[in-house]
Amino acid sequence: MAGRGPIANGPMHPRPLVALLDGRDCSIEMPILKDVATVAFCDAQSTSEIHEKVLNEAVGAMLYHHITLARSDLRKFKNLRVVVRMGSGCDNVDLKAAAELGIAVCNVPGYGVEEVADSALCLILNLYRRTYWLATMVKEGKKVAGPEGIREAAAGSARIRGDTLGIVGLGRIGTAVALRAKTFGFTVIFYDPYLHDGVEKSLGITRVYTLQDLLFQSDCVTLHCSLNEHNHHLINDYTIKQMRPGAFLINTARGGLVDEHALASALKEGRIRASALDVHENEPFSFSNSPLKDCPNLICTPHSAFYSDQSVTELREMAAGEIRRAIVGRIPDSLRNCVNKDYFTSSSTNYPEGMNGSGSGYPYNPLIHSTTEPPLSGTPHAHMPAHSTLPTLPTLPESSSMINHQSQKPDSAESH
Asked: How far is it, in rounded angstroms, from Cα 389 to Cα 64?
């Protein structure tokens, strides 16, 4: 399919429309974009909830993880040029279809690294020291006294120093976890088939070259890779059997990496001593509808590891900045984190000149959240066996508008 042409933008033309698809607060994005675009929000959970004006006119879209843009969804947008995923993982956007339609897709890989790494360590420490369960026990009024009482209440607590932490995916967050874990006395190993040799030497950790080796050697396994077609259910019944009996498992990356039915069986049988999950196959997560609902020794949090007031502000500023670069620069050369550029260059799709037809910007530098640059030729894969009825668009102050057919919803949590 031919690329979509340049978008007129300047004093003789109306400002292009940019929409936040699955949120309703543009207070941070709007000051960054108000001189080059009209900013609207949709507060939608599917493209069927998006106003026709946005589908027909929007040239830029920002989204968290609450909405999916498959090929059929992307085709509904008649003038879309750039999508910015407000987070690092892009598994809710069809990257190849977007490129074929002339739409660049970007992510925000640099935000929340510290928060997710800190959260992962917090969960690891809780599993080792059983802090969550002990605190719950006290809160519920259970009295723990004497050495026998302590032994019974804290059974399963383990010493950290000398244990081996296995990290799957040594991207930004995986690296941050490795550095923190060394401080606590872990021996750190990692598996990442997409990194060049020598990274381990600069960090003072050990590299293994198969997932099987990592699982066999690790007392605790923590996942920090993105989700793709090669690693869905990376942790399954087969790979769990390759783990050390009584190992711990932590996932703050993507829910689809773990087969929750297999994990449930392993927890109930004691093959995995305890597990902590911030991400789940079906979100928002509900224990009542999950195979994990009756599992012992399990901590679940609501996909919140990325969150701090500072990280969310940083995320939104960086996403708005990428949209601005697309409008005033050239797509994709002006974009810092275009994750589907390879699909553009390997297809017959022509790039648009840019939203305003401007010249080339600065060089492209693709950096992705986890292990996972798209596989290169010869690179091993991961080891694995809602309708709008508004007739008009109400305008909010300073070039922001609301496009939503429903009553106000509670604030949504952004995703890393």
From this structure: 23
Kindly tell me if the per-residue pLDDT of 415 is higher than 90: no
Alpha helical stretches, state H, 184-291? 199-203, 211-217, 237-240, 260-269
Active-site choice (51, 66, 207, 303): 303
Establish how many alpha carbons lie within 13 A of residue 97's alpha carbon, considering only the half-sphere containing its beta carbon.
Answer: 15
Secondary structure tally for the chain: helices H, strands E:
14, 14
Of 52, 283, 314, 353, which is the active-site residue? 283
Residue 322 a catalytic site member? no
Rounded Cα distance between 213 and 219, Å, is: 12
Active-site residue, from 254, 316, 330, 383:
254
Query: In the numeric block, which tokens belong to residue 189?
Result: 């190993």
User: 74, 102 in Cβ contact below 8 A?
Assistant: no
- Can you tell me the distance from the alpha carbon of 131 to that of 123, in angstroms, rounded to the nearest whole number? 10
How many CB atoms lie under 10 A from the CB of residue 318?
A: 20
Q: DSSP string of 31-98?
A: HHHTTT-EEEE---SSGGGS-HHHHHHEEEEEE-SSS-B-HHHHTT-SS--EEEESSS--TTB-HHHH
Amino acid type, 396: L
> Active site includes 303?
yes
Q: Annotated catalytic, 416?
A: no
- Among candidates 75, 9, 18, which has minimal Cα distance to 41? 18
Q: What is the pLDDT of residues 77-117, one digit of tens each?
A: 999 999 999 998 898 999 999 999 999 999 999 889 999 99
CB 274 within 8 A of CB 298: yes
Q: What mean pLDDT do residues 134-163 have?
A: 95
| Eight-state DSSP code of residue 369 | S
Contacts of residue 356, defined as CB under 8 A and 6 or more positions apart, other chains included, come to 6, 7, 8, 9, 10, 327, 328
Alpha-carbon dihedral angle through residues 79, 81, 84, 85, given to the nearest 10 degrees: 70
